[in-house]
Amino acid sequence: MSTHPVIVIGAGIMGASITYHLAARGADVTLVDAGLPGSGATRHSFGWIGRMPGDFSPAGDLRALGRHHWERLAREVPGLEVHWSGALVWGEHFSSVGTGDGQAAVREPNLTSAPARSEFRPDDGWLNPVRATEKLISAAQENGASVRFGTPVTRLVSSRGDTVDGVELGSETLDASTVVVAAGIGSTALCATAGRSLPMISSPAIMVRLGASPGLVRGIVANDMFEARQDVDGTVLIPLDYNTESSMEDLMQVGMDARRLFVKSFKGAQEAAVLSAEIGWRPMAADGEPKVGYSETPGLYIAVAHPGITLASVIGDAAAEEILTQATRDELAIYRLN
């Protein structure tokens, strides 16, 4: 196993998972981020762990593995909570196999109007993305990882020709045998400093948070009108499409509309209040597929994937092994940048 230092750029859920899995294997690893853990795209994630039915694509297989790795991490990492509540779904977008078993009202008793036909996915779950990120990083530190927050990386360093062998932090340079770029939408600009192209798109979405009495929503609820889940403290998350909103007034209106829909959909929700409505920029490669692995530039490893929450667990494990052994993991073989 390599004992040379590894630098991971990006303290979102993906970078945190890779850092944890490296540190757990005994690697000398440093995690660097311009902000705090989970303060970028991770903060705006719904946190749904699952696989769409009928998704037989390679990425779908990877998402299925993601669930099993989250089960493992929940056992390994102190304080990491994954809630296997299941998901109740209906409508054209989320389910084509809904049944009329009458169980929707049992699984979500606070629905004001339970659907006649629905599908329950017992294997789906959710987690709080920021808390999970923080727990992974704490566990990584317990295993010897170093962290540098509030420290933006200005460029990747190539002191030996085309090989990336460090990062520049303003006037400071950190050396590394491998630099992992897991910086979400910032990954393109970082890779460009090493002459490497990483075509990406930034897909915006709005996350509305409501304050409500705990227990109104038991699991994940998703249909053609809305998606919702409730955290243990009562906070309700409702992700919505971005429709060119361009001001705080626009976002507050979206939040108020979401609140009205929530109150209409759930009994006992009249006291719900809008806590926030924010735009999140979801990072994904231009072709929509994960991009994970060593690039054609020696020393540069890239990890960009959507949906990051579901995939972070399996990618973290596989990427750590690839970095330390230089052997390709089968589940990541088709996601190379070339």
Write out key terms for the chains shown.
7-stranded mixed beta sheet; alpha/beta; 338 residues; 25% strand; D-Amino Acid Oxidase, Chain A, domain 2; 7 helices; 6-stranded mixed beta sheet; FAD/NAD(P)-binding domain; 2 domains
Write up what this structure looks like.
The longest helix is centred in the first third of the chain and has 19 residues, at 58-76. This protein has helices at 13-24, 58-76, 104-107, 129-142, 187-192, 248-265, 308-325; strands spanning 6-9, 29-32, 48-49, 87-89, 119-121, 125-126, 146-148, 155-157, 166-169, 172-175, 178-181, 200-211, 220-222, 227-230, 235-241, 273-285, 291-294, 300-304. The chain has seven helices and 18 strands. A hairpin with a 4-residue loop joins strand 13 and strand 14. It is of the alpha/beta class. The protein has two domains: 6-79 and 128-199 and 286-335, FAD/NAD(P)-binding domain (3-Layer(bba) Sandwich); 87-121 and 202-282, D-Amino Acid Oxidase, subunit A, domain 2 (D-Amino Acid Oxidase, Chain A, domain 2, 2-Layer Sandwich). Helix 1 runs parallel beside helix 4 and helix 2 packs across helix 7 (308-325). The two termini are 26 Å apart. The strands form four sheets. Strands 5-4-13-14-15-12-16 form a seven-stranded mixed β-sheet. It has a six-stranded mixed β-sheet with strand order 7-2-1-11-18-17. A three-stranded antiparallel β-sheet has the order 8-9-10, with no helix packed on it.
